[in-house]
Design a protein that fits this description.
globular, 0% helix, mainly beta, 126 residues
Length: 126
Amino acid sequence: QVQLVESGGGLVQAGGSLRLSCAASGRIFSLYAMAWFRQAPGKERQFVACINRSGANTKHADSVKGRFTISRDNAKNTVSLQMNSLKPEDTATYYCAAVISTMGALPEDRRVYNYWGQGTQVTVAS
């Protein structure tokens, strides 16, 4: 089992940047593929980005490609999401998620992930 705690959310003006972090505790962090999802009020939780166990491979949703970057530090048991050029439509609660996986796996489906953080709010003002 792994516990996930997100931090770094807040209020930012459109065009600004934020960096989200997710600290993991519990079992061996490097066994897990990690991802960020987000959920706006009244909408389904949607995929933002994922990273494989080693951090060598990543995948980003088209809506954030070129603006957001996922990364991980297996020595520190953390995964981060650097968000640049933020837009009002990026406003949501952002969740960190984990699943034990094979080395190359990059799962986008939220139903695959069985560990979730509590979420951190990101609000982008226009």
